[in-house]
Design brief:
Radius of gyration: 38 Å
Distance between the termini: 93 Å
Strand content: 35-45%
Helix content: 10-25%
Number of helices: 9
Length: 554
């Protein structure tokens, strides 16, 4: 007997299954000609094609057969709808005088649409193994025989105490041979693990955990009754959630790029209010910043939320991780899969040495112009060596106290601007007032978190750019040669530690005519500057924003 649940599935509660009717072997093959002239072979046309066959042994003047007829037709219609192309009913007459013509007339009079076969079509020959007691005592018409797909296993004389009970038992046997496995997946077809399914039936309540699939066909208490199935999945609200998801939700709210996928609309409604509002962004950002560690109604929601089914059937459920609107592709949507990630971007600060107890304001900035929709990062620090007193910005629009969370030993930052904002190179993105109780170098005291928010910048063209925290070293002893220069010149400087150097050349009006970031090593560095194309005249040099001298271009 097939196990009730498969693929890492644990059932909680007592289950009772009906005992199957075992046969003495597979069904003998037969060939018949139906009342509409079709030649059909049991194995070639059905069993070997993985089709289930239901045979009704009947005759056209059988009163009980006439009573069963409308019920059989209803079952035939529903089973073909439930299992299209996988099931067939066949009427086989036991009466010598029933010709195919009489069977055709009987079908018309009773409104039957399944194939029927009279004696001259081979019905009695096909029924002979069942009439002679090979599979059990033949008790008269109607007798129903179910032949399993693939194996040809026979289930003989499925019979109840009334026509309706017989039909119910027949349906139960059919569904048992067609195990209905229902899926538990995310919107992209990947299986979900550890989904709790609650079954609410009139006389049978239970719950179980399933991974990927589940089925209920062999639960006797769920036959011939309606019941409610409700899925639930627990998990961390942080999974798949970033500030970029908040950017996309904000774009939807402002109708800049609305969601079109149903799963995105479900995912964006993190507070389960049946609408998408700024409050969903506020709720999700509190989770991102570590202020709260749960969503109001859990981290997952299913489509549908629940289902009413019957007769051992189940329901496919699609689970959606709340907040993660960027989980995968969606047509006509800005939501992007993980492959939208691009080259890393450096967020810089200037190196400095703190004296014990000294406080200073430290700026974090980009060395290139950016058009950003959002930014997130988190910092870890040892409060014995570093304290962050205030967090401010010079340029970020919509930045407020809700944009960050300052804890005892960490700072989490999440900023978004759905309309996009241009950030000028060298301008302070974040300004931190720091105190170093025991002194030390800033590069040793401040670092991105190894376990907090993934440091990322979200450009307005939809790119997700990983952030690196980089130090601009202390520079000294600038030396420019040749000066005056023609075509090119070099800048030499001594650096106290390795890092990056942004070299800029400005004309007398302050316009940048050359700009490039160079890697630098601890000690003496020499950077070659190409000036071909620059007009003759006086130019001012800056290295990491600091004045580095003047050069004359001939």
């Amino acid at each position: 007997m097939k196990q009730l649940f498969t693929r890492s599935l644990l059932f909680i509660g007592a289950l009772f299954v009906t005992s199957p009717l075992y046969s003495q072997g597979p069904a003998p093959d037969f060939t018949v000609t139906t009342s509409d002239g079709q030649v059909k072979k049991l194995y070639q046309d059905y069993i070997n094609q993985q089709k289930l066959v239901v045979i009704e042994a009947f005759f056209t003047t059988c009163p009980p057969c006439a009573t069963h007829a409308p019920l059989v037709q209803n079952l035939y219609t529903s089973m073909q709808a439930a299992h299209p192309g996988q099931i067939e009913f066949i009427l086989l007459s036991t009466l010598i005088s029933d010709t195919n013509v009489k069977v055709a007339q009987y079908k018309t009079s009773k409104g039957l649409t399944m194939p029927g076969v009279g004696n001259n079509g081979g019905s009695i020959t096909a029924l002979q193994p069942y009439l002679n007691g090979l599979y059990g005592q033949f008790q008269g018409t109607p007798t129903f025989i179910v032949i399993a797909p693939g194996t040809g296993e026979v289930f003989f004389d499925i019979r109840g105490n009334s026509p309706s009970q017989t039909i119910a038992l027949l349906q139960q046997k059919i569904e048992t041979l067609f195990p209905k496995e229902c899926s538990l997946e995310n919107p992209f077809g990947s299986p979900l693990e550890e989904v709790k399914i609650t079954v609410d039936a009139p006389a049978f309540d239970t719950s179980f955990f399933a991974t990927d699939i589940y089925d209920l066909t062999q639960v006797a208490a769920l036959q011939n009754t309606d019941y409610i199935l409700k899925p639930k999945k627990t998990g961390s609200p942080y999974d798949g959630l970033t500030t970029y998801d908040l950017v996309l939700i904000s774009k939807h709210i402002l109708d800049i790029v609305p969601f079109h996928c149903p799963w995105q609309i479900v995912a964006a409604d993190v507070n389960h209010s049946e609408s998408i509002t700024t409050f969903d962004i506020v709720t999700a950002r509190k989770v991102i910043l570590g202020i709260t560690d749960t969503f109001p109604n859990g981290s997952w929601r299913f489509m549908p939320d629940s289902a009413t089914v019957s007769n051992g059937n189940c329901q496919d459920f699609v689970g959606v991780k709340l907040g993660d609107v960027n989980a995968g592709p969606c047509n006509d949507s800005l939501a992007s899969p993980a492959d939208s990630r691009s080259l890393p971007q450096n967020l810089f600060f200037r190196e400095r040495a703190f004296q014990p107890g000294e406080s200073a304001r430290v700026a974090l900035f980009f060395m290139e112009n950016n058009e950003l929709d959002g930014l997130q990062c988190s910092f870890d620090f040892d409060p014995n060596f570093l304290k962050i007193n205030t967090v401010e910005t010079e340029i970020l629009e919509d930045f407020d106290a809700e944009s960050y969370h300052l804890g005892y030993d960490h700072l989490s930052f999440s900023w978004l601007q759905a309309q996009g904002q241009r950030l000028t190179a060298g301008t302070s993105v974040l300004s931190l007032e720091l105190t170093a109780p025991q002194g030390g170098r800033l590069s040793d005291l401040l670092r991105f978190s190894g376990t907090g928010l993934a440091p990322e910048a979200y450009s307005s063209d939809g790119q997700i750019r990983p952030l690196h925290l980089s130090v601009l070293p202390t520079l000294s002893n600038f030396f420019i040669s040749p000066n005056p220069a023609e075509g090119h010149f070099s800048i030499q400087s001594t650096m106290e530690n390795e890092g990056f150097c942004l070299i800029q050349m400005l004309d007398v009006q302050g316009k940048i005519v050359f700009e490039k970031t160079f890697p630098a090593i601890k000690g003496i560095n020499r950077w070659e500057i190409e000036t071909s194309g620059a007009a003759a005249g006086l130019y001012f040099l800056k290295v990491n924003g600091e004045a580095a001298g003047k050069v004359v271009i001939k």
